[in-house]
Here is the input.
Amino acid sequence: MNKRNKRIVISISSVLLTAAAFSINAANQVSNIDDNSFNCIRDMTPVRHFYVDNLLGNTQGTLAVANDPEGAVYPEGSVVQLVPTEVMVKREAGTFPATGDWEFFELEVDEQGSTITKRGFTDVNNRFGGNCFTCHLPAAEKWDFVCESGHGCEPIPIDHSMTGALQRSDPRCGEPELQDGDTFALFKLNSMVVLGSAKKWLEDLF
Ligand code: HEC
Here is the structure.
């Protein structure tokens, strides 16, 4: 092989090696999700009243679907969050067809970061005992399980003043950036949680 050909071979192999390293890294990021995969919700990209991101760096692809008025299927690696403690992540194609490859997560969050307390596909319940998959299912066909408002899911009793206040007080982001009305929204939310747990406690008791 002459010198020029050798150089070409070397540069082609380095391109291939880089591509291989990139795809291994990419595969790791969606299959090896751990506590460190989730950070301050406000560092994600806002869409209307929720936030999106993409673990593979394809935030543009995720945003395009979130903004598609006809609805579409979210690309692999998509992360969607409305509140700091609940996350949907689009896993590798074919991982779990029933949920459209979405994995549901429940987190504990504090100043130190996130701890995954529950994760899975059809069997994850939130802290109010509701099943993530069942509630999101009505939006499956057209909106790839993303409920928002008007996508067919039963509305939740937590309104956008409360979800906004939760986003602005995510402890992983440092100091809260509260707006007018947030303290009252958080107070209402807290009362609902306390009443909700009292109701659950009474139901369990009788
Ligand atoms: C009682 C039904 C219900 C349960 C249970 C539920 N969700 Fe939702 N979820 C909704 C509705 C309705 C919305 C849209 C709320 C809105 O924007 O007004 C939503 C919003 C979301 C969003 C923002 C994107 C979207 O779909 O609008 C994510 C992410 C999410 N939920 C994840 C979860 C996870 C994870 C769980 C379980 C740990 C869960 N949800 C449990 C009904 C539910």
User: Anything to note?
Assistant: Strands lie at 45-47, 50-54, 78-81, 86-90, 102-110, 113-120. Residues 35-162 form one domain.
